[in-house]
Amino acid sequence: MAAYKRDGRKFAMLSVYDCPTARIAAAAGIETLLVGDSLAMTVLGHPDTVSVTTEEMLHHVKAVSRGAGTSMVVADMPFLSYQTSPRDAVLNAGRFMKEGRADAVKIECGRNAAPTVAAIHDAGIPIVAHIGLTPQSAGQLGGLKVQGKTVDTALKLIDDARAYQDAGAFAILMECVPAEIARLVSDALDVPTISYGAGPHCDCQGLVSSDVLGLFDAFLPKFSRRYAELATDIGKALSSYHADVVAGRFPATENCYGLPADILEELAVRLDERNGGRQ
Ligand code: KIV
Question: Which residue(s) pair with 194 in the sheet?
Answer without folding.
Answer: 173, 204
